[in-house]
């Protein structure tokens, strides 16, 4: 079917999928592809050990470690929609890229393990979603296992994350007794059939809540329990409000089991209706409409090739307006140059393919000749503009870098600065020490290994790292004089390469204490240009 440009943009949905490792993000993504008809047999796309590497085989470390260091993007079609899923690495050693991926998404799907509730990594990623005010949808997964009490799960989300919830459907039983979900809007129950452990699309039978067959099928006890729970819910729970959902203040909640496919398709259907096609994005020339004639995009991630033989980099662009056409030239605003974007590529299910056209909402990877930086804007507009910058996210691990061969000072500085520019690490200096003492901050500890490996492999420089006990970093908003700050014994004053002052803390309670002690001091978890 041929779509107009406007239709192409309107049918796009671009979302990130976030969770704590093992909550079922990969499995759920596979099932989306299954329902999208992209794959025949779920599990054939992203089996953890094999397929993820097929998508991002640029990084040797990734192969060695068998975990995904980088985030990947997948596109698939469902019911006339064109959907872009931004995957956020699930391993604990995630990086700043994981946060930045959320800058490219228009909404987020949060996958929660029904027997665990909100976990650490979800909490971290959630903060970024809140900062961006994007809609957040909750999929409570693994209902085929014994789950926590449903009301407790909702309380946990509200208390831990501070967002109101509204269940769109409600589970009937859990574990072996997970029979189906009740759709509150339609007042119907979807009963699930065997999906042979999720390898085929299950049959879903829909029964009205008033249908006597329902009581017969789930038994008197479960039926009574369901009625009680629904009454409680109607009495005490929040009502669905699309406006609040859109602002990211109310999270619609769904229950299901990605493994057995239960509840996946109904989630997808509701989700697509409750989210929007790409919305305008802020730039220094005001809001840019996705339907603008001009193409525009920004870089949200740069991935260096770890393979020495191909030392190229790929820049990932989120298209914000218009159509990308591979034959046309675009202005790289920060670089002040116009050129074609070479080797544009997109991930489709399990393969990378070269694209010649893409639309607002899409993500493309393009060859980076070493000139692009995170946050850069590309556009076809004659009067160029820049999209709002991408904030710097707080690293949680810090180390002092020691150069083993001090003769290679120049290479060392070049390497470490370039790697920092790509956004894998952040570098800082202590006051009064000069460039001899560099402190590196990373979001996930694996980045220390990546830094060591890359400096050695690409710049021929060997380093040693001395871990520092700091875990919290804060940017200082406004012009507060750093010399005037009265600190705590575990606090350290540092600056970044642009000479902006920052504070490091060992303990989180010290952050609050310093804030209290210094009137007018505003500390932030995000750094902005
Ligand atoms: P990720 O780390 O969040 O991407 O999690 P995965 O999708 O890799 O899932 C982690 C483990 O949980 C795997 O062994 C999955 O088979 C299993 N799993 C995922 N979804 C479900 C589910 O709905 N029910 C059950 N019982 N297991 C699941």
Low-confidence stretches: 41-71
Largest sheet: 8 strands, antiparallel
**CATH class bucket of the largest domain:** Alpha Beta
Would you identify the CATH architecture of the largest domain? 3-Layer(aba) Sandwich
Count of spatially separate domains: 3
CATH topology of the largest domain: Rossmann fold
CATH superfamily of the largest domain: P-loop containing nucleotide triphosphate hydrolases
Q: How are the strands of the biggest sheet laid out side by side?
A: 28-25-27-26-30-31-29-32
> What is the 3D shape?
globular
Structural class: alpha+beta
Helix content: 25-40%
User: Taking Cα atoms only, what radius of gyration do you get, to the nearest Å?
Assistant: 24 Å
**How far do the termini sit from each other?**
44 Å
The whole-number mean of residue pLDDT values reads: 87
Taken as a percent bin, the fraction of beta residues is 25-35%
Q: How many beta strands in the DSSP annotation?
A: 33
User: Counting H and I runs of at least 4 residues, what is the number of helices?
Assistant: 14
Bound molecules: guanosine-5'-diphosphate
Question: How would you describe this structure to a colleague?
Answer:
With 529 residues, the protein is an alpha+beta fold. It has 3 domains: 14-67 and 88-275, Rossmann fold; 280-377, Translation factors (Elongation Factor Tu (Ef-tu), domain 3, Beta Barrel); 391-525, Alpha-Beta Plaits (2-Layer Sandwich). It has an 8-stranded antiparallel sheet, with helices on one face. The longest helix is centred in the middle third of the chain and has 17 residues, at 220-236. The protein is globular, with a radius of gyration of 24 Å. The two termini are 44 Å apart. Mean pLDDT is 87; it is low at 41-71.
């Amino acid at each position: 079917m041929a779509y107009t440009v406007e239709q192409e943009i309107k049918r796009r949905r671009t979302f990130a999928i976030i969770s704590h490792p093992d909550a079922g993000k990969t499995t759920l993504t596979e099932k989306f592809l299954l329902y999208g008809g992209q794959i025949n047999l779920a599990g054939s796309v992203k089996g953890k050990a094999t397929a993820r590497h097929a998508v991002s085989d640029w990084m040797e470390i990734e192969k060695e470690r068998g975990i995904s260091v980088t985030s990947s993007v997948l596109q698939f079609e469902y019911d006339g929609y064109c959907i872009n899923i931004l995957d956020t690495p699930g391993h604990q050693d995630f990086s700043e890229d994981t946060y930045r991926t959320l800058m490219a998404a228009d909404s987020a799907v949060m996958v929660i393990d029904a027997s665990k509730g909100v976990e650490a990594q979800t909490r971290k990623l959630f903060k970024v979603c809140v900062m961006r005010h994007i809609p957040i949808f909750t999929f409570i997964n693994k209902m085929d296992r014994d789950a926590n009490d449903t009301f407790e799960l909702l309380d946990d989300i509200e208390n831990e994350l501070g967002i109101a919830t509204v269940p769109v459907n409600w589970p009937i039983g859990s574990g072996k007794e997970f029979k189906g979900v009740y759709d509150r809007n339609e007042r119907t129950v979807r009963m699930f059939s065997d999906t042979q452990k999720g390898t085929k699309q299950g049959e879903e039978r829909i029964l009205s809540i008033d249908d006597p067959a329902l009581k017969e099928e789930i038994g008197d006890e479960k039926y009574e329990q369901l009625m009680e729970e629904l009454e409680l819910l109607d009495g005490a729970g929040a009502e669905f409000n699309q406006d609040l959902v859109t602002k990211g203040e109310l999270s619609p909640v769904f229950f299901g089991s990605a493994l057995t496919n239960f509840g996946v398709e109904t989630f997808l259907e509701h989700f697509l209706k409750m989210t929007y096609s790409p919305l305008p994005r802020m730039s220094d020339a005001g809001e840019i409409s996705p339907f603008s004639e001009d193409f525009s995009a920004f870089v949200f991630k740069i991935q260096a090739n770890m393979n020495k033989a191909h030392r190229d980099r790929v820049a990932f662009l989120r298209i914000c307006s218009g159509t990308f056409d591979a034959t046309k030239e675009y202005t790289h605003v920060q670089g002040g140059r116009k050129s074609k974007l070479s080797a544009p590529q997109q991930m489709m299910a399990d393969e990378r393919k070269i694209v010649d056209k893409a639309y607002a909402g899409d993500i493309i990877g393009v060859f980076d000749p070493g000139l692009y930086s995170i946050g850069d804007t590309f556009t076809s507009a004659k009067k160029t503009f820049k999209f709002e910058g991408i904030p710097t996210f707080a690293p949680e691990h810090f180390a002092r870098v020691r150069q083993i061969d001090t003769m290679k000072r120049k290479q060392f500085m070049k390497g470490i600065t370039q790697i920092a520019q790509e956004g894998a690490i952040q570098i800082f200096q202590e006051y009064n020490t000069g460039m001899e003492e560099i402190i590196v901050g990373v979001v996930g500890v694996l980045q220390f290994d990546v830094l060591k490996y890359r400096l050695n492999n690409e710049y021929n420089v060997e380093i040693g790292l001395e871990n520092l006990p700091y875990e919290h970093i804060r940017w200082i908003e406004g012009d507060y004089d750093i010399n005037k700050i009265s600190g705590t014994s575990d606090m350290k004053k540092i600056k970044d390469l642009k000479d902006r002052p920052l504070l490091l803390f060992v303990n989180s309670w010290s952050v609050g204490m310093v804030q209290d002690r210094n009137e007018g001091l505003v500390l932030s978890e995000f750094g902005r240009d």
